[in-house]
């Protein structure tokens, strides 16, 4: 039995529209959210040569009017990935001041609320231990900086005392 081939003009309009929309989303059309193109910016945070888990890494634009901050949180290996508007979307190109904070909260001597949840006031009052020198977490005292270029960026931060 011979097969017949239909030209695209014989396809239903809804199918053609669907194909165009899928094609546009795969090529990047319609991704403009008004913020600007972000580029991957990731790396590792170490202190005294050891990975720093659960640290917050914040990129603040050097020129306050030139962009938006980007943040990331390190995993157990000290690896972070920046986000500006949505998870893992990267950072805008430019120069940044970088702050890093890593605090361990000791909840062992506190009582949690029913259901295993801790109330905010309990967490605020719980003993805390800074895992890296406090200067890295202060926007005024940090010596860390980074430049995000229009490419994939690997930005490692080996911290020392």
SSE blueprint:
Elements: H1 13-27, E1 41-47, E2 50-51, E3 56-61, E4 70-73, E5 79-81, E6 94-101, E7 103-105, H2 120-125, E8 128-130, E9 145-148, E10 153-154, E11 157-159
Parallel strand pairs: 1-10, 1-11
Antiparallel strand pairs: 1-2, 1-5, 3-4, 3-6, 6-9, 7-8
Describe it for me?
This protein has 161 residues and is α+β, with helices and mostly antiparallel strands. It has a domain at 36-102 and 131-159: Immunoglobulin-like (Sandwich). It has helices spanning 13-27, 120-125; strands at 41-47, 50-51, 56-61, 70-73, 79-81, 94-101, 103-105, 128-130, 145-148, 153-154, 157-159. The strands form three sheets. Strands 1, 2, 5, 10 and 11 form a five-stranded mixed sheet that branches. Strand 1 (41-47) and strand 2 (50-51) form a beta hairpin. It is globular. The chain starts with 12 loop residues before the first helix and ends with a strand. Mean pLDDT is 82; it is low at 20-30.
Essential attributes:
alpha+beta, 5-stranded mixed β-sheet, 2 helices
Q: Can you summarize this structure?
A:
By secondary structure, this protein is α+β, with helices and mostly antiparallel strands.
Largest sheet: 5 strands, mixed
Rg (C-alpha, Å)? 23 Å
Unreliable runs: 20-30
- In the CATH classification, which architecture of the domain at 36-102 and 131-159 applies? Sandwich
Q: What share of residues is helical?
A: 10-25%
| Large-scale geometry | globular
| Class from helix and strand fractions | alpha+beta
CATH topology of the domain at 36-102 and 131-159: Immunoglobulin-like
Instruction: Tell me the total number of β-strands.
Output: 11
Please report the distance between the alpha carbons of the first and last residues: 80 Å
CATH superfamily of the domain at 36-102 and 131-159: Immunoglobulins
Number of helical runs?
Answer: 2
